Amino acid sequence: MSAIITEKFRAHNANNFFESFTESSPNTYYLFIGKATPFTTGTSGGSDSSPSTPADSVSREFYNWDAMIAAKKIPSTDVTYALPRRDWSNGTTYDMYDDDISSSNTSTSGATNLFDSSYYFITSDYRVYKVLDNNGGSAYSGSEPTSTSSSPFALGGYVLKYMYALTASEAAKYLTTDYMPVSDDSTVTTAATDGKIESLSITAGSGYTDGTYYAAVYGDGTSAGTSSGAIVRITVSSGSIASFGLTAGSDTTIHDGGAAYTYGTVNLGSSYTFSDAALSSSSSMGSGTGGAVGVIISPKNGHGHSAITELGGHYVMTATTLTQDEGDDVSTANDFREVGLVIDPTTYGTSTVASASTARMTYAAKFSSASGTFDVDEKISNSAGAIGKVVEWDSTNSILYYHQERFGDYGTNSTTGAYVAFSGTGTITGGTSGATGTPSTSATETVTLANNNTIAFTSGYANPEMQPDSGDIIYIENRKPIQRASDQTEDIKLIIEF
C-alpha cells in the first residue's frame, strides 16, 4: 500500500497547535531550560562541544524533569506561524508557484514539492512576495520590489504577487536567520478571487504567424470557454509564442482571469483563436507546431487569500524572553543545555494545571549555619546517602539550590543505584569545595529573596514549584552551554515543524 501525509494534514496539525493557545479551554505551555551539568558519555551522552540528539523515550522524559532549572509560561502573544526564511537578492534564481510540482514535474531548483521550493522571498523592508513566474527559470534581474499592489506586477523579469509585510516589532521578535513569521494581510485577502487564473505556462513552439490573438480558457470556471470567462492574450513573435508576462505587446498575458477554475485548458486551433477580446472574429495562428499555453491553477480562494496556507505555514514559532532572573525564579548563576516545551504541568503537590508566569524547578535547602562557598555543578552529599549537584549557592540567604539527576554520583549511588532524597538535619557537604551546611530545623520558614519573591521551606527544604513528571514534554532540544548572568536576557525561539 502506498500512502502520503499531505501538506493539508501538516497545516491542520500546525493550526490545531496554534489555536490550542487561544481556544476557549486552552492548553498551558511552558518553555523550560535545564541541564546545568555538562553532557558526558557516562550520563546523558555526547559532550558540551557536541551535544547528543535527544532521545524520545518514556525514561528520558523523567531525566528531563530531573534536570529542569526553571520554566516560563508562553502566552498566545508569543506564538506565530512561521516559514523557512528566503531573502530577496538580485541575481538569484527563484522557483515559481506551480499547482502541479511533483517528482515528474520538478521546480526550477529540482524540488518535488511546492513547499520545498523557493517560490517566495522577503525583502530588506520585510515585504514578502510570491513568484508567479520566474521567466523560464532565469535569475531575478532588477530592483528590489516595494509594491503592495493587490494585483500581480512585473519586475526583474519576474511576475510577483505581494502577500504581506512584517512590522518592525514582528521582525525584532520572530525573525531569525533561518525562519520568518507569516500572517495574513486583510487587504490582500479581501482582494483575492477564488479560482482566478493569474499565471500561465508557455511552450513557445515555432512556425506560427506573428500577431496578437485571444483565446478562451475552457474548464470548469465561471462562463468557461466564453468571452465572459477567463481569456488569454497571446503574443506571437518570430513565429513563437512569447513567454508569459505582464507587458502588453511583447508578452503573452491574461486578459481576464475569470473565477472558480479548478482546471483549465487553452485550445490554439484555428476555430479557437480570435483577433479580439470579445472572441467575435476568428483569427488563425497559422500552421505552427509545438506551442502550448498551459493554465496554472491558483490555490483555493485565490492568490493572496491566506499567506499562511499558500506559503506552507506548517511551522509554529514560540518566542520567549528570559529577562535576568525573572523575579528570582530563573537562576543566573549557572548555564543551561536543554530547552523544551511542556504542556499542562501541574503546581507542585496538586492536580491543578500550573498558572504562574514563571516557576523555579530546582530543589532548595535552607541552612541554619554554613561554612565555605559551594561551587556550581559540584557533587553534594549527606550522611544518609543523598547525592546531588549544585545549581546555585545563595550565600546571602544561605540557600542551596540543587538537582538530583538519576545518574551515578549525580543523584544516585554509583554502586547500588539507590536514590535518597535530601531530608533531615544531616550536614550537606560539597565534594570539591569542602563547603558545609546544616539544614534548618524550623517546621516552616519563608525567605524573601532579592526581588521580593518568596520560598517556603518545610524543615529546611523546598520542592520545585511545578510537579516533576506532570504534563507532557512535547519538545526537547540539546544545545551547547548557554551561560546566564545577572544582567543578561536570552531570547529563545523554538520552531516546531509539522
3D architecture notes:
It is a single chain. This protein is mainly β. The protein has three domains: 1-85 and 176-191 and 304-361 and 465-498, baseplate structural protein gp8, domain 1, CATH 2.60.340; 199-296, no CATH class; 363-463, no CATH class. It has five helices and 31 strands. The protein has helices at residues 7-19, 58-66, 168-174, 186-191, 307-310; strands at 29-34, 68-73, 79-84, 120-122, 127-133, 153-155, 158-165, 179-182, 199-203, 211-216, 218-219, 231-237, 240-241, 253-256, 264-265, 273-274, 292-296, 315-323, 335-343, 358-360, 363-371, 379-381, 387-394, 399-403, 428-430, 436-439, 444-448, 454-458, 461-462, 472-483, 489-497. Strands 21-24-23-22-25-26 form a six-stranded antiparallel barrel. The longest helix has 13 residues, at 7-19.
Identify the notable features of this structure and list them briefly.
498 residues, mainly beta, baseplate structural protein gp8, domain 1, 3 domains, 8% helix, elongated
Compact summary:
With 498 residues, this protein is mainly beta. The protein contains five helices and 31 strands.
Number of separate domains:
3
The major pleated sheet works out as: 6 strands, antiparallel, barrel
What's the rounded overall pLDDT mean? 96
CATH superfamily of the largest domain: baseplate structural protein gp8, domain 1
